[in-house]
Write a structure and sequence with these properties.
The complex is a heterodimer of chains A (113) and B (114). With 113 residues, chain A is mainly β. Chain A has no helices and eleven strands. In chain A, the strands form two sheets. In chain A, strands 2, 4, 5, 6, 9, 10 and 11 form a seven-stranded mixed beta sheet that branches. Chain A has a four-stranded antiparallel beta sheet with strand order 1-3-8-7, with no helix packed on it. In chain B, strands 2, 4, 5, 9, 10 and 11 form a six-stranded mixed beta sheet that branches. Chain B has a five-stranded antiparallel beta sheet with strand order 1-3-8-7-6, with no helix packed on it. Chain B has strands at residues 4-7, 10-14, 19-25, 32-38, 45-51, 56-59, 62-67, 72-77, 86-93, 102-104, 108-113. With 114 residues, chain B is mainly beta. Chain B is built from no helices and eleven strands. Classes of the chains: A mainly beta (113), B mainly beta (114).
């Protein structure tokens, strides 16, 4: 079974631009969560989607948004990029959200200059 | 709000010694507690998990204990090996309640010295 995939793997953007990241979950997994990982801050929860609905959102500004498609693929968008948005963005999928293992993708490394 | 505290942030042990990482959670309704290992440049991977109806779980050299009254859980690694060197994250979630989010600790960087 193919694992969670994320594209692109690396991105360099300029402050003020916007970016869209993509995540394809494991086949059959309908829950997709997004995390921001920065040194010293661990894994900060961004949001979780299930059957195209956002069910939970972390403490991030409205510049961070996402969506999920009918095939469970998910995208997250960050508008008006700031230097502090530089991070590794990880998505994870699970079969039974909250009660079972999350399988992480390789992440997208975003650098904002 | 919901919070998971993890200690220590860094831990160095001699090969063959044991390592213990501790986490405390704030939401008493949490019922699922996974531990993830993240090697340098790689994605986090589950190494062991425990549910709230169990006090202890063991898998070869790793074990997790849960104290629901005190709201803390710990990871124990025995006979550490150099390949155990990584960052370890604990997490807490309350599946089935409608929140469906995992709260992660800030991580522990474990170094096993050969």
């Amino acid at each position: 079974k193919a694992g969670v995939t994320q594209t692109p793997r690396y991105l360099i953007k300029t402050r003020g631009q916007q970016v869209t990241l993509s995540c394809s979950p494991i086949s059959g997994h309908r829950s997709v969560s997004w995390y921001q990982q920065t040194p010293g801050q661990g894994l900060q929860f961004l949001f979780e989607y299930f059957s195209e609905t956002q069910r939970n959102k972390g403490n991030f500004p409205g510049r961070f948004s996402g969506r999920q498609f009918s095939n469970s693929r998910s995208e997250m968008n960050v508008s008006t990029l700031e230097l502090g948005d530089s991070a590794l963005y990880l998505c994870a999928s699970s079969l039974s959200p909250g009660l079972d293992e999350q399988y992480f993708g390789p992440g997208t490394r975003l650098t904002v200059t | 709000g919901e919070n998971v505290e993890q200690h220590p942030s860094t831990l160095s042990v001699q090969e063959g010694d044991s390592a213990v990482i501790k986490c405390t959670y704030s939401d008493s309704a949490s019922n699922y507690f996974p531990w993830y290992k993240q090697e340098l440049g790689k994605r986090p991977q589950l190494i062991i998990d425990i549910r709230s109806n169990v006090g202890e779980k063991k898998d070869q050299r790793i074990a997790v204990t849960l104290n629901k009254t005190a709201k803390h859980f710990s990871l124990h690694i025995t006979e550490t090996q150099p390949e155990d060197s990584a960052v370890y994250f604990c997490a807490a979630s309350k599946g089935g309640s409608g929140t469906y989010k995992y709260i992660f600790g800030t991580g522990t960087r474990l170094k096993v010295l050969a």
